[in-house]
Structures are given as structure tokens and as C-alpha cells.
Amino acid sequence: MSDRITSQRIARELEEPVEEAANLAKKLGLDPYPVNYWIVDHDEMNQLIAYDGFQTRYPHWRWGMKYDRQRKQTQFLGGKAFEIVNNDDPAHAFLQESNSLADQKAVITHVEAHADFFAHNQWFGLFTGGETPNAAAMLARHADTIDEYMSDPEIDREDVEKWIDTVQCLDTNIDRHQAFSSATQEESESVELDDIADQLDELDLGADVVDEVFDEEWLESQRDDDETATIPAEPEQDLLAFFWRHGMAYDDEAGKAVEMTEWQRDVLEILRREAYYFAAQRMTKVMNEGWAAYWESMMMGEETFAGADEFLNYADHQARVLGSPGLNPYKLGKELWEYIENSVNRREVIERLLRVEGITWRNFHDVIDFDAVQEHLAPDSMVNVISSDRLASLDPDDPRIDGEALERARAGEIDVGSYPWKVLTEAGMAERHYSLAKPQNRGFLRRTGREELERVSRYLFDGARYANVEEALAEVNHSAGWDRMFEIRESHNDVTFIDEFLTQEFVDDNDYFTYEYTQATRDFRATSTDYEDVKKKLLLQFTNFGKPTITVHDGNYNNRNELLLAHHYNGVMLDVEQAKQTLERVYDLWGRPVNLKTVVKEIDEHDLEVAKRREREPDPEERGKLIRYDGETFTTEDLAWEAVEEIAATDIDYDTKPDEWLA
Predict the structure, then answer these.
(1) Where does 298-357 have alpha helices with state H?
(2) Strands, DSSP E only, in 5-150?
(3) Which of 74, 85, 285, 541 is the most buried (most CB within 10 A)?
(4) Which residues of 206-236 are buried (b: 16+ CB within 10 A; e: fewer)?
(5) Tens digits of residue pLDDT in 343-399
């Protein structure tokens, strides 16, 4: 890729950091995919970013647009690409040759944590059916297939690009909660049948046989079922699969809908498959980036993987990543993981302390010396301070000590000055990095509320009683926080992660708040620090990748072969102009008129003026609307509330601006 001599030199310099970062990750309990690292130059990095982290993608103009945007961002806005890693087995990560050694180490540790997340989060397993991915090969096959279509003299290249543009407008409209299966496998087995009576006539059966086997009541029931059947039977969230099975292409020359060609159906399924592959990354952005930032910080900072002469550069690196403006998934994710770890560890300590004779939830804060507790929670010096001159005092039979590694260290085969963690087991690492013993978390146990203490006490099952605090704390499980984090890593996505673990305590600790655009003052105002409000605001950003949820409701709307789509309104209106542009694309996939029902909020001008004078927000009225496109013109009509009641919001933040949703 980049200059061969430069790449080889940098690769040699990074061989040890790459190997030891993987070793350190495993000592901490991570179990990542193997990672192949590539050295690339600045321009190649921009290309990879444009290609979503892969070296080969199908030919299309949008990659050039993304490349140009990335190039200008780094050139004029001072942006800096730190890492790219893709979900594959083995994973592939790309290191920019111009980055400093501290930056390279930060990327490598960050990547190892990403590879662990890819390997264990169930949402990534949905695409592969639990198998490990082979994404690079899949995307290369897709690229070859589409390139062949574009090179085919009987197919207009512009038609292929236009078809890709059309499908890409809908690539978030898939059923992201279901395991991927090919649309060819999902194709309905039910077909439109001719009248059953006519088919029986063709069989030339005797009248007595027909009357005996196929009575009139049975024939009528079959007619009724066929006449009333709707497509789809239930609202369909995977629009791309629906169009593969039932859609048609609009032919400009013929002026009507025609059957999709083989290449159109093939490209549609290719892009649908890629949408499902990338869905898990979109669904777990906060979790995944927070997970990687958490373990990177521990490895680089607390385990001094960044050398003394590299630490300031690394600190600047992390500050830039965590300090990025706007909704920052690195910062939010890392803070949530740390809060979960602290909360689980606190619960573990509280349960021990509440079993000490004389300590109850009522007198907890009065009788406990929290400074003394902090000292007892500090890691044993045996795991906290490891040096060559202390190796002789380490006990190889201690469960916190890796006996085999200790023997090698004593023989001089391991440099404990650079890699002290090598002589520890995962249990030793958990104690060494116990979260409640860290200075920044000193007050976390102390501020436990009486309500939580009472709740823990109420559900505390009978167990060992302790004579004193020291005896209780000696049995604290230092791995409890990490164990719970590993469980959450496997099962959650961003929506469930935020919904379950974002609490009022977290919001207060990290200074989160909501802000709204006010119609009365035409500006933004901070409105709430209540965790429910913050949670709603965040969930709007992550539900369905932060995009409107659209489903197919009827493929024979009004019995005219028109398509009826529905916007599942969550309090945020569609941008009507963008919705119309999308309906134009949908028309190309259906070939006949398309309809979209939604809910809009309308504000009476008089009510708005009154609200302005009273310095309050006006109350909008929600109305059902149907937008129809027939291939030439748009029409909009009112719908009765009963027609949109099933897609209307319930308990959602109604004040968020539409352009925040669509950004």
C-alpha cells in the first residue's frame, strides 16, 4: 500500500506493541478476534474511511464523494484519523504511518477491544447466524458482481448507478432485530391462484367426486381467503426484502411498471445484505466505542502501555477523542461502562457491609468509616507494585499470580519493568484495577442513598455474617464489575444499554441535560436535567439508527395495486420535502403510485402569538396526513385520526426538532 520501505520499517517497530497489546487484552479477560494490522499512508487512510473500513467496494460515485469530504476535513479542519477496524475474522485494522508511536499504541489497544466486542456481541452474530464473519471476501464478491454489470455492454452503467442510488435511500429500512436471511429464501410460497373451481373443471373430475371431496362451502372459504388476503399480512419492516419479492421497476420508456431484470434483483439483494452486515455497528456505536475507549484507557494509562515519554502525547490523543463536540459516542459509552462497573462493585461491597454485625441500612452512614473502607479496598501491594526486585516474594500458588509467567520472569525471560501485568492472572488484574479503589471514585460508595441501602437490605438473602468490616471486605469479589460488563457486552445494543443503565445518578455525575428549540423564542434553551428526559432525547438518536421507522402496510392499497407505507411517528415529524424525495425513489422500486401516511404537528398562528406574549410554548395539534406520489405529482390529504392512531406516538419527547432527527 504505502511506500514499501517505510511500511516495513514501521511494521518492525510495531511488532512488539501489537503482540503485547493482544497479550494484555487477554490478561484483562478480553477474547478478541485475531487482528491483522496494515500500514497505510494519509491518502490511503482517507480511501479506507470512504470505503467504510474495507479495501474493496463496488464501484459507485458516493465513495468518491465520501473520500473528498474526508480529505477536506483533514486538510482544512485539522481532523486526524486515528483508527479504522472492521468486523471480520480475522479483523483488519489500519495504522496511519504518519501517526506518532503513542498514537499507534492507542489505536492498537483500542482495536483489540473492538475486536473483542465484534466477537462476542450477539447483534453482530445475527448477520452470520452465530458463525464468524468473512466480510472482506463478501464485499469483494459484491464489488466484482456489480462491476461486471456496469461493464456489460447490454446494461447502461448509469442505470446501474441510478438503481444503487434508489436502493441506498432505503438501506436503513430493514428488520435489524431479526437474523439475516436471503430474500430468495424468504420469498413467499403463496402464489396468486386462478379460481379453484376453474382448476377443478380442468381436471375433468366427475360431478359426484367434486361434490364429495370439494363441497361448495369449502370452495367458498377458499375464494374468501384469496380475495381478502393482503400483502403483507402484517406490517413489513424490511422494505428491501418486500421490494425484492413484490416490487417492480418503473420503465421510463415504456411509461409503466415492468418486472425487475435479473441484475436489478441481484443488486438489490447485494445492497440489502450489506445493510444487514453494517446494521450491528450502527446499533452498538455507543457501546462499542465506549468499550474500546474504556479498555484502551486502562491499558495505555493504568498499565503504562504508553511509555513515560509517550504519555503526554497519549493524553492529548484521548482528550481530543473524548472532547469531540456534539453527541460523542466515545465519551457517553465510556462513562456508562465506568458507571456500570462502579455500581456493580458498590452493590457487592454494600452487601458485604450489611452483613457485618451491628450494621444496618439505617445506621450505614453513621457507623462506617469510609476512609478506612477505601484503604481496605485498595489492591494488595503484591499485585499493585510489581518489580524485578520483588519477584522472589510473590507466591506462585496465589490465584492472583500466574505461576508459569512468574517462573519465566525470575529467569529473566519476562521484562516486568515494561510488562508487570504478565505475572498476574485475570483475578490479579481485577484487583489491581478495582474501580472503587481509584481516586476518581472515592466518593462513589459514600454517597449511596438510603433508598438503595434499604432495597439491597430487603433482598439480601441469608449468608455469612461478619464480625467486623475488615473481615467483610476481605471477601469482596474484585471481578464482579468486569463480570457484569462482559455479560452486558454480549446481549445489549445502544437502545437497551441506555434505557437500562442511564440513571439520575449518572446524569448528575456527568452533567447531562436536554435542550430544546422553542417556537416562541426561536432559539435553543436548556430544559431539563431529569434522567427520563435525557434518556428520551438520547433514545430518539439511536432508535432505528436515528432515522424514521417506515413499514409497508399494504401492497394493494384501495385495491389499485398502490403501495401504502406508514411512518411510525414518535413525536418527531418527518421532513416532508425529504420524504417526498424518498417516495420518488420508492416509486422506482414499485412502479405504481405510492402512499405514505404519517402524523404532523400544526400550530395555529394565533396560538403562537399568544404563546410568545406569555413566554411559553404553544400546544401543537397532531393530524394524520397521507402523501401520495403517482410518478408525476404529489398530493396530500387529511386522514381521520383512526387511520393513524396505530402509528402515533405515546410517551415521547415532542419538542425535538425534525432536523435533529434527520441529521
Answers:
(1) 311-322, 329-353
(2) 35-40, 84-85, 91-96
(3) 85
(4) eeeebeeeeeeeeeeeeeeeeeeeebbeebb
(5) 999 999 999 999 999 999 999 999 999 999 999 999 999 999 999 999 999 999 999
